[in-house]
Amino acid sequence: MITLKNTINASLDKVWDFWSKPEHITKWAFASPDWYAPYAENDLREGGKFSTTMSAKDGSMSFDFLGEYTLVKQDQAINYVMGDGRKAVITFTETPEGVEIIESFDPETENPEEMQRGGWQAILDNFKNYVESN
């Protein structure tokens, strides 16, 4: 598994809401400024499904990131299986500095692990920036 982390200077309630509500997901779920997320749906419950469309702003590429939740513990943890069968685990922990998010996921085999780590970390950094500035 690849593991990433970041600490968000915000309340746990705000972090959880911004992580889980589609109107917020579309504002941070992309890895670089030349991409965006035009669509997101999220049924945050065990057995619920999610889908986020990630698109290049120039229209050259687009894909749907989707999966199904296997564990949801309000304000604590989210586990899911991606559409291709890979698994991901996310924990949310309050600290004196803010909410620490630790995200671990099974890498895919198409791209180098460092590239995947960089892309997912960039998305997590976008999340931090979005939450802290709104």
Automatic annotation (TrEMBL):
Alphabetized CDD domains for the sequence: SRPBCC_CalC_Aha1-like_4
Domain spans labelled Activator of Hsp90 ATPase homologue 1/2-like C-terminal: 9-132
Highest taxon, organism lineage: Bacteria
Coiled-coil regions listed in the entry: none
Gene3D superfamilies xrefs: 3.30.530.20
InterPro entries in the cross-refs: ASHA1/2-like_C (IPR013538), START-like_dom_sf (IPR023393)
Similarity-based family: Belongs to the AHA1 family.
Name of the molecule in the record: Polyketide cyclase
